[in-house]
Design goal:
InterPro entries: HTH_MarR-typ, MarR/SlyA-like, Tscrpt_reg_MarR-type_CS, WH-like_DNA-bd_sf, WH_DNA-bd_sf. The chain is mainly α. The protein has helices at about 10-40, 45-50, 60-65, 70-80, 105-115, 120-125, 130-145, and strands spanning about 55-60, 85-90, 100.
């Protein structure tokens, strides 16, 4: 006996919201890639540098956060290390583990990269603090679902 799959109809408002989210993500991605290029970085290098500007991380954790293979992370870290933006250092808690960490120059480039992202910042500036908090809370709720 064949089973029949039912597809729930999506209402027009949901379709519009999904389309708007897609447009925002695409515009942010395009600006991020342009900003990375302006710093002679690939998008992946810029994302890794931004991630490491928050805290040093082991390669495996970087791969998990960037949703890629650890071997890809090694290549990206190698290229950033060659430019003096990232360094490898032993983990104080487990000397067998190497952490990737930004250098002072890497921190400067990451900050400059963040500051050059106008699309993400300017439209949000037009919202009140309460509206930004509401948007943040709604996005967090969506991500938790």
């Amino acid at each position: 006996m064949a089973t029949q799959k039912t597809t729930a109809r999506i209402d027009p408002l949901t379709l519009e919201v999904v389309d708007l989210i897609g447009t925002v993500v695409a515009r942010y991605h395009d600006e991020y890639e342009d900003a990375a290029t302006g710093h002679a970085l690939t998008g992946a290098q810029a994302r890794l540098l931004s991630l490491l500007s928050l805290e040093p991380l082991p390669m495996r954790r970087i791969a998990q956060r960037l949703k890629c293979e650890p071997s890809n992370v090694t290549g990206i870290v190698d290229r950033l290390e060659a430019r003096g933006l990232v360094e490898r250092r032993p983990d104080a808690n487990d000397r067998r583990v190497k952490l990737a960490a930004v250098t002072q120059e890497g921190r400067r480039v990451a900050r400059s990269l963040r500051e050059s992202l106008h699309f993400a910042r300017e439209p949000l500036a037009g919202l009140s603090v309460a509206e930004r908090e509401s948007l943040r809370d709604l996005l967090l709720r969506m991500l938790a679902a």
